Amino acid sequence: MSHRQTAPRAAARRANRRDPSGPWVIDTRDVGRRPGSMRRYQRTVPAPAGFGVESVIGVSPGAEVCLDLRVESVIEGVLVTGTATAEVTGECSRCLDPLSDTLTVHLTELYAYPDSTTDASTEEGEVSRVVDDLVDTEPVVRDAIVLALPQVPLCAPDCAGLCPGCGAKRAGLGAGHGHETMDPRWAALLRRGDTEEENE
Fold this sequence. Notes:
Number of strands: 9
Shape: elongated
Helix content: 10-25%
Radius of gyration: 28 Å
Number of helices: 4
Distance between the termini: 93 Å
Number of domains: 2
Order of helices and strands: HEEEEEEEHEEHH
């Protein structure tokens, strides 16, 4: 690999350096580089913004995310597997009622060592990477949660939504509920007739 290729990659890594004390960051020196060495991590960390589908459903900023991770050293880097669990909140797309649920996502992510074949053969952003012996689990968890969320959340699969006439929940309205509609052309004629009567 030429110096021309490695310089931008090194600059990107410097920009992506993480605080080793951050709750989402794992120091791989605790695991070691011998392939097969492994360590488990169980943490409860606060969710940052962006863990959801904007204005629809997601994990509220500051809400707890429970991590149960297995971090294993492999030849090409560090393999992180496990689960992340959090409460998601939002509103029904049909009736707008609030809803909440507990979501658990499964994680499998390889973080490539900076001197590995995987690192040398992939572009920046194509795979996760070990930076200064640290791995940042936040982007991986965020992506997994966002992909697992429903794009159209519903309080129930058969939710009937709201009445377009009065805005009330259809589930609480009788079978005969309805609103009288009038052709707009007739409405214009009625308004004209009312005006003529007022002028007489």
